[in-house]
Amino acid sequence: MEYYTKENFMLTQSVGFMLVKARNMIVADMDAALKDLEISGQQMGILLSLTSGIATTPFELSKLLGIDTGLMTRMLDKLETKGLLERSRSVDDRRVVNLTLTDKGEEVAAQIPEIAPQVLNENLKQFTKAEFEDLRRLLRKFIGE
C-alpha cells in the first residue's frame, strides 16, 4: 500500500519528518541532562553498550548505534581523551580493536540510569501506558525488529 502520493505529500506531515523531529527533541533533552557528566547522548550510547557488553568494538558500535565509522572514531577519540575508555588490539586478530571502559568510564556509565529515564519519561508524559506500548510496538515494526 502507498500512503503518500505527490498530491498528498506534505513534508511536515511525513513520518520521516516527525521521526527526525522527535529524535532531535530527545537528543537535545538528553544532551542537556548529561551535561554535568560531560558526555553527549551519543556518547551515552557507547558507554552503555560497552557496559552491557552488547558491542565491544568500533565496528559493532557503529552498526548497533547507526553511526558511520568516521564519526564513531572521532567519538571514541573524545571518550579516550576524557579517560573514559581504552582501546586495545585483539590478540587473535590485530585488525580488531577492542574497547573497554576505564574505572572513570564505569563510574560515569553507572550514573546514566539515574538520568536517562527521567528525560525519556518527560518526553512520554502525554502518553498512556497503552499508547507507550503501541509506540514501542510500531517503532519495532518500522525498524524491522
From TrEMBL:
One of the Pfam families matching this protein, by short name: MarR
InterPro entries referenced in this protein's UniProt entry, alphabetically: HTH_MarR-typ, WH-like_DNA-bd_sf, WH_DNA-bd_sf
The question of whether Transcription is a record keyword is answered with yes
| A single MF term (Gene Ontology) | DNA-binding transcription factor activity
What's in the keyword line of the UniProt record? DNA-binding, Transcription, Transcription regulation
HTH marR-type domain sequence ranges: 12-144
Q: Which domain of life is it from?
A: Bacteria
Q: Does the keyword Transcription apply?
A: yes
PANTHER family on file: TRANSCRIPTIONAL REGULATOR, MARR, TRANSCRIPTIONAL REPRESSOR OF EMRAB OPERON
The name on file for this protein is Transcriptional regulator SlyA
Organism whose genome encodes this protein: Paraburkholderia domus
- Write the lineage as a comma-separated list: Bacteria, Pseudomonadati, Pseudomonadota, Betaproteobacteria, Burkholderiales
